[in-house]
Amino acid sequence: MALLINIPTCIGARPAVAAALAGRGRTVTATDVHERVVPDGVQFVRDDVTDPDPAVYRGADAVYALNCPPELQRPLSAVARAAAADCLFTTLGTDPVVVDAVPETLPDGTLFETKA
Description:
Distance between the termini: 14 Å
Helix content: 10-25%
Structural class: alpha/beta
CATH topology: Rossmann fold
CATH class: Alpha Beta
Oligomer: single chain
CATH architecture: 3-Layer(aba) Sandwich
Strand order of the largest sheet: 3-2-1-4-5-7-6
Radius of gyration: 13 Å
């Protein structure tokens, strides 16, 4: 996987991944359709991947979403593709993956990376 330097991540109510990446010195921009409190070191931008502001994702190395529902997988993948960034996401486990993605089994679940 590429070195993650700037990672717009759909944060929702679970900022642990964003906090961990920021804690490792990565530049992290969290996005959500609702205002969210984010951990120190994480920038927040209100955005909607179904109607994105391309400037939010410009220069990103990866776009990541935790528990990405099927209806947001295509828009998430499109946002990443437009930014020439990797697209990574997890699901709730029982949700189907509706985009062409490669699964990677991790100790706590499965990480999916969309194919460019």
